[in-house]
Amino acid sequence: MQMLKLLSRGEYKTNEGYQALVTAKQSVKWYKEVWNKMAIPKHMFILWLAVLDRMQLKERLFRFQIVPDENCLLCGTKKETIEHLFFDCHLCYQALNQIKDWLGWHTAASTIPKILRWVAKARMTRFRKQVYSTTVAALVYHLWWCRNEALWNHKVYRVSIVVRRIQSNVKNRVRSYMPNKIQHIDQDWFDQL
Questions:
Q1: How many domains does the chain have?
Q2: Side-chain half-sphere exposure of 144, counting CA atoms within 13 A
């Protein structure tokens, strides 16, 4: 309809035509936490898929009769859904708690949307929010990686190994993208991690 109005006026501008064709932009509250420039791109992508509930989990694959069962690959006790994998599964829940202890993170949030909302609303410096967002992305990515290792290589890693990988990834990534101007208190906090 908008396109017809543009054409009937006799003057057509490419930008206006494009805007008429493109649907309205959807605003989401988790944008800054998911697409954090300090995080590793593949971690952000997997977190984005998890937030949108578009991961190829066994529950979804079972519905299309691609896999024979829908049990979690890490614990084998419940259906592998996004809610179970992030963070009802005992292995994933333990990893989340160890990461919270490592960061000194005091929140009861235990689902991806609630964790991202908490990070967005938390009263802390921008640097700390970026570190928390980077850690959430790394946590989700590594739990997904751990799940895929169980699927393809029949290996289930110990929580301590997964947590060490997350800590190493986060420390190395943040050090390489450390802002030039950072408060001393934030620098000290990060150095103690």
A1: 1
A2: 22
Do 72 and 79 meet the contact criterion of CB atoms below 8 Å apart?
yes
Classify each residue of 87-123 as buried b or exposed e, where b means 16 or more C-beta atoms within 10 Å of its C-beta: bbbebbebbbebbbeebebeeebbebeebbbbbeeee
Residue 79's SS3 state is: strand
Residue 16, domain member (yes or no) = no
Q: Is residue 14 part of a domain?
A: no
pTM for this entry: 0.85
Burial group, residue 143, by CB count within 10 angstroms (0-12, 13-18, 19+): buried
Residues of the domain holding 40:
27-191
The token pair that represents 129 in the structure block: 């929010």
Spatial distance between the Cα atoms of 189 and 186, rounded to a whole number of angstroms: 5
DSSP codes of every residue in 102-165 = HHT------SHHHHHHHHHH--S-HHHHHHHHHHHHHHHHHHHHHHHHHHHS-----HHHHHHH
Condensed to tens digits (0 to 9), the pLDDT of residues 35-88 reads 999 999 999 999 999 999 999 998 888 888 888 899 999 998 899 999 999 999
Retrieve residue 176's tokens. Answer: 């390489």
